Amino acid sequence: MRFRCFHHPLYHYPLPAEHPFPMEKFSRSRALLEAELPAAMFLAPDPAPWDMLTLVHDPAYLTAVRDGRLSAFDRNRLGLPDDAALFDRSRRETHGTVLALRAALEHGAAANLGGGTHHAFADRGLGFCVLNDVAVACAVLRAERPGLRALVLDTDAHQGNGTHALLRGQPDRFSASLHVGRNYPAEKETGDLDVALPRGVDGPAYLAALDAALAEIAGRFAPDVVFWNTGADLHVDDRFGQMALTDADFAARDARVLAWTRARGLPLVALYGGGYNRDRARTARLHVDTVKRVAAAYGAT
Ligand SMILES: [Zn+2]
Predict the structure, then answer these.
(1) Helices (H), 4-123
(2) Can you list the residues of the chain whose pLDDT is less than 70?
(3) CA-to-CA distance for 182 and 172, rounded, in angstroms?
(4) Which of 21, 32, 118, 128 is most buried, with most CB under 10 Å away?
(5) Domains in the chain with CATH codes
């Protein structure tokens, strides 16, 4: 099969140079993947339809972001300037996760070169996350393929609080998050499985926790499809993740997750999540290497 990579085209959304959000990682990583995964298909989604977004999100919140009418408080906790360009970008990014879901169900695996915006709630955006792409994709899944059970495996260094809240109480969804306990977001949500790790957790301790988490999930839930919010902010040189994984630890993390999904024959949707390396080019490299491992594990050429 040809591996499908969905990307959102507004790469150069203007942010001030000192802004902490590394918007350039999207253009950098796409360029690297086009060079290093030349047989893959690179597809630019249209904006997600409005009635797809309102499966999860409050229309009043959506219009406030689109029209740049967030309150100063809401704009500050989102961390990005609300306007029509950001809204368009976020809609395309969210649609990318939905399209990657459909592609994964058909072909085995697919990636959204973005997504994993796990801090977004129905009526508010937090921590650079405008829309909750995974929750929207889970709602689409329910409409299009009722009965299919979805696991959200969130290995980003921060808790997937919005995703936990949006999927809570749905027995056909299992929301699992491994993260640093004393890190953003200060106010945690309860998910189906939460593994709160200490600040500065290193590779061996992290991988042991991941092994235990995967074993526990296997005992509690039998998914039909997996959303993996990978996260590049576990790296020792990340500015915000507060973990201490090396490049080799990333390879080991990815091998464990991919062995787990492959052993069960599960379709996999791979998402970026966060990544804020002190070496800005490094962030794209970490995301790219994980996407390449996903493609290789699923036999994509
Ligand atoms: Zn994160």
Answers:
(1) 24-36, 50-53, 59-66, 72-78, 84-107
(2) 10-13, 301
(3) 29
(4) 118
(5) 4-8+20-297 (3.40.800.20)
CA of 23 to the centre of ligand 1 (A): 14
In angstroms, rounded to a whole number, what is the distance separating the alpha carbons of residues 157 and 230?
9
Catalytic site positions: 119
Q: How far is the CA of 274 from the centre of ligand 1 (A)?
A: 4
CA separation for the pair 233, 127 (Å, rounded): 14
pLDDT at 123: 98
Backbone angles phi, psi at 59, to 5 degrees: -55, -35
CA-based end-to-end distance of the chain: 7
Task: Compute the distance between CA of residue 28 and CA of residue 24 in angstroms, rounded to an integer.
Answer: 6
Ligand 1 mean position, distance from CA 201 (Å): 15
Residue 226: the pLDDT is 99
pLDDT for 217-272, tens place per residue?
999 999 999 999 999 999 999 999 999 999 999 999 999 999 999 999 999 999 99
Amino acid, single-letter form, for residue 25: K
Dist. CA 28–CA 283, nearest whole Å: 9
pTM of the entire structure? 0.97
